[in-house]
Design goal:
single chain; alpha/beta; four-stranded mixed β-sheet; binds ligand T3D
Length: 261
């Protein structure tokens, strides 16, 4: 796997680290392909029961590598289909991960980089983190699912403001807006994200997956439709070992041990 993205498995947690620190982990084609591959690996690895996405150095991810992009524009390639070829598969790789995903936002998250964090189930941010919906600054609209995720996280009015004005917000503001779940000192971020991931990795993975699926479905459904979807998911979960074992453990006044299936 390319060194532009690192993959580490520890304690049942796959940690994917964007690794171009000198360019704030901005995204070249090589890095985007490596990220798609890392997400595939985390998905298919049954020993990985939670996934953490983070960045090396002082940035989380500054979005598209604008140097590579400028070279492409100069040579007449324009966007070269990277949204369809790379950004969309990355976001679907995150949002279709059949296990919980956590963004550990260690520093600046801009453009598509911020959108990757929004695509995760949970976001833990360093006090040093900032978010910048930088797309319009370079004359582009939102991609990487930002039009879908951001308004669901903070509401349409705030999403419009963040996307149109593209003013960076700090971690405290992001917490106030509900854009992140927790803010911790920078030197505690990796440990906090790992501990949260470990808690999830020891939990009922299929039920966590169903939480995301139910919320995604309900976001664009009427109530009867959402009820039907909940019933379908519940019927599926009722057949899992984890559901049976946790129910019996409750009755026996024991702590449940979840296997993740
Ligand atoms: O094909 C397509 O393009 C479609 C897809 C688009 C998706 C997108 O993501 S569009 C948005 C692209 N990203 C941006 O517009 C963000 C650009 N970066 C910035 O505005 C600033 O760098 C930050 C606000 C993120 C951070 O500012 P600061 O002052 O903390 O750091 P810096 O000095 O600007 O950056 C440090 C280095 O990283 C610097 O390199 P140098 O001069 O030390 O060699 C800088 O050029 C490099 N860097 C930062 N962002 C990018 C980048 N290099 C390439 N691409 C970047 N996006």
């Amino acid at each position: 796997m390319s060194e532009t993205v690192r993959y580490e498995l520890r304690d049942g947690i796959a940690t994917i680290t964007l690794n171009r620190p000198d360019a704030l982990n901005s995204l070249t084609v090589e890095a985007k392909v490596a990220l798609i591959n890392a997400l595939d690996k985390a998905k298919s690895d049954s020993t990985a029961r939670a996934v953490v996405l983070t960045g090396a150095g002082r940035g989380f991810c500054a979005g598209q590598d604008l140097r590579e992009h400028a070279a492409g524009l100069e040579s007449g390639h324009g966007l070269s289909g990277t949204v369809e070829a790379h950004y969309n598969p990355i976001v679907l790789g995150i949002t279709r991960m059949p296990k919980p995903t956590i963004a550990a936002v260690n520093g600046v998250a801009a453009g598509a980089g911020a959108a990757f964090a929004f695509a995760c189930d949970l976001r833990v941010a360093s006090e040093r983190a900032t978010f910048a919906m930088a797309f319009t600054q370079v004359g582009l609209g939102p991609d990487s699912g930002a039009s879908w995720t951001l308004q669901r996280l903070v509401g349409r009015g705030r999403a419009t403001e963040l996307l149109m004005l593209a003013e960076p917000i700090d971690a405290a503001k992001a917490l106030e807006l509900g854009l992140v779940n927790r803010v911790v000192p920078g030197d505690e971020l990796a440990e906090t994200a790992h501990a949260l991931a470990e808690r999830l990795a020891k939990g009922p993975t299929a039920a966590y997956h169903a939480v995301r699926q139910a919320l995604d479905f309900a976001a664009t459904s009427d109530l009867p439709g959402a009820l039907q979807q909940e019933a379908a998911l519940q019927n599926r979960l009722a057949t899992t070992n984890d559901h049976r074992a946790a129910t019996f453990a409750f009755v026996r006044k024991e702590r449940p041990v979840f296997q993740g299936h």
